[in-house]
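Forwarding these from the shared drive since the link keeps breaking.
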Amino acid sequence: MERVRKYLEINTLRFSLESNWEKFRFVCIDSESTGLDPKRDKLISLAGVGLREGEICLFDEFSVVMPIAYNTSSVTVHGITREAAAEGIEEPEALCQFLDWLADGVIVGHHIQHDITLLNLACEKHFNRTLKNVVIDTMEASLTIREAGGFKGDDWPERHSLDALCERFGITPHDRHTALGDAFLTAQILLRVLKEAGKLGMWNLEDLHAWYADQPFPFTNG
């Protein structure tokens, strides 16, 4: 498929994890699915927002909904019913559009393992390929910065959920549990993480616990 080939070509020269992250394009993503088992459940919605040079780029957004055969219990979380998704884009085309937008951006997400597993399984199913991008988990990155001496104070949350970090950083959780809303919240958290990392002189991707999407997720508490 031509669009998949172009995506793979763009990602042929992959970032070194020792690279300085200041000039990279980060793509904060989130997905909603029919359940929590990525081997059984399917993507329903997928969204993201770009971030460059310390700014969220509102013109650099992506959002797509995919049709589903029936409603599952997850509808109580994300609110996307079979009827609401009926006019959505079929998964292969939705994935192609996502890869067009993604390009070689550094993928960022909160508790990102589930999203990456879903995306890799879907890409393997339709294209016999997996994602090649560098990936950062904002939970892991925030804990790494905290352990390195950042985010000083006693108000660090015991839990490391998206909601807990939003509260810690004073971020109002608009559109929570929608893919685009959660991607935008993740982008705001990433801004805080990058700012604190810069203060500590942590300029490499590996300083943020970065990894590659086609490699096993390296963290047991992701």
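-- next protein --
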Amino acid sequence: MTVCSYVSLLATDWCAARYAHVRPRAGVLLLASFCGYALGNAAGFGSISGAAVRYRIYSVAGLQPAQIGRIVGYLAAAFTAGAPIIAIAVALFAAENVARIIGLAPSTLRWAATGTLSLVALGLFAASRRSTIDFKRMCLRLPGIRLSCMQLALTALDIAAAGATLWFLLPAGRPDFLPFAAIYAGALVLGAASHVPAGIGVFEVAILSAFGTSMPASAVAGALLIYRAIYFLAPLCLAAALLAGHEVRRVSATLGGLAVEPVVRAAARLTPAVLALLVFIAGTVLVISGATPAFHSRLVLLEATVPLWVVEGSNFLSSVVGVVLLFVARGLLNRLDGAWWVTIVLAAAGLLFVLASGVAIGEATLIAFVIVVLVLARHQFKRRASLLSEPLTARWLAGVAIVIVISAGLLLFAHEDMQFTRDLWWELAFDAQAPRGLRAVVGAGVIAMALTVWRLLRPPTGRLTPATHADLQSAACIVRNQERANANLALVGDKSFLFSGTGASFMMYAKRGRTWVALFDPIGPREEWRELIGRFVEMVHSFGGRAAFYQITPESLPLYLDAGLSVLKLGEEARVELGSFDLQGSRRAELRYALSRGQRDRLRLELIAPGKVEPLLPELARISAAWLAQRNIREKGFSVACFAPGFVAEQQVALLYQDVKPMAFATIMTTARGKEAALGLMRHLPEAPRYAMEFLFVQLILQLKEQSYCTLDLGMSPLSGLDVHPLTSRWNRIGHWFERNSRPLYNFHGLRAFKAKFNPNWEPRYLAASGMLGPYLALADTAIITGRGLKGIFSR
């Protein structure tokens, strides 16, 4: 019946592909469908976890995201609409028995079922009259009456076969199949609606509530456990085997075809996720095994062969090993080499413990299978990082807590007639299974709580490695031989470096709390960017941190999305095209006025080469100090230039004089290869004329144009260009409102308006970070790093 159910599910995937107008190869369809359902059924959130499997397999097989989205949407709708309809239809045909089970009057049930099915029929009829439904700006294509009826038949077959799997396992006194199928379908819907993994607990409660009075509750519970093993665990194990990299590659070599190679690559990438789930299940089985009683005949065998302390110790330690496996599984998800070794050792120990504590053949078989699959997939776990520093999510900790609670509940259920007294703790005997289970559950709970508290309270790990003189020299060499002028910020000395394996490129970064933020895209040859981004993310995750990339360009976004990061738009960078810049036209009237006004005020600009700046540093420092004092702020850093004498001396300086007195200056970053200039520092004395800075900028642009530079980078305008429309993101709405209403704190609007006078091209800049809330937390930490503290965040 389980095989029949999964065959009907495979046919459902075929219908979904037909609805999406795609024809994937049979092998791709079978692998995506079976593994998607096996993992989705066991992990819960089936529409999400199953969709992830299908996307990974279908995408490498050549399907487009929109096509995969239509397949996933069809499958979600098929179950969401089909299961309740089938439950109601079956309840109508077996109204007498179903009404007796759920406590309703048969006539009430018939009227409710008839009315609901009539509405469904009207809906199908209405849908057959049109091919699409327009909803606001979305257009939903309907599957058609023929495909809809075919899907309802497949859903009915799936529910009937899956329900028969449990129905055959129920003890004597079970109801007829039709009323049972109606209750079963309703329990499935409740379990799916709860979003609990595999509906564990919700589905069982529904079945026990319906049939626990007509049959022994313990026998129904036993049937449910066996049903879980047959319908959920066995397909999951088979899916894990299919996705194990070594075995799939061997099958590919046997078939001798290149057509399955994309599927092989997708399966290899999915192996860690499936194995992490499988190890989590194995840990759950060990914890529950320690809490539940063993068969009496097996205890008699143990009593004749091993001492009592072996049984007692093995039972307790099997639960401890199970709890530790629940935590270690997180490391497998992140491909840690250490997690693989620890899992192998723990699984081998757990195998011995379950055999020594109760000759648990089923648990031992599962753990042996896990060991075999881990060995086959060894090559997938090569990331060398600290297992102890891997972060645990709230969802993962909740999963561990659920396992402990379920094991405690099963202990109470199995020994409901036992009086739990203080003396039970010290009762040691082969047949004293309640005390043995109690010690195991309490030990598992204590270990789980200790590990959780330790992981939650541990301080942030990982320290920055300050840049050495050799690092700065290497970075300076790379910066000079590439084209991006703002890469000179690496030479300020306030950042650490991560160099590529060849030494031809690097990333510069800083850290605050758990946030490790890299500034800009990697500096160096583009073909090395992917490697550097991956290494940086792995390094940060090895320390339990949050990886972030600040002010990245649109062209590089696919690299960060492939690394599993989330993206926010920060603002737009102003870049003046010097070749087309002139002072003609009404739009340049204000700039022409600033130029003529500066000339009347006897202003002149001198562009000083890097080698001649050092003698002027005392005068530049005086101007900078006066500018900071006037605003009562301190130097910033990281993503903006600061007055570091060694850094300033290596840049071009545009120095503005009034007669012979220096009044303002700006540093200009350039490289040996590029024709791009980038603005660094901008400082002026309080008594400088009102139009001094506009005069400086106009003269600077004209002089750079004469020197054949192509572009002047004026820097980023934060929160600019965040469009707001009905489909915009929540972040865009928040950023747009803040940009319009934060003038007392920071004049975002005024900064953009000043740069807009020079008619620049506006290029978007983004922040990429790991985690759902990671971009927002990383943005706050980056602002504090740049401002060198909370006080400097909103400094003008």
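The chain has four domains: 1-105+145-243, 272-458, 469-573, 574-762. Residues 734 and 789 are 23 Å apart (CA to CA).

- D.
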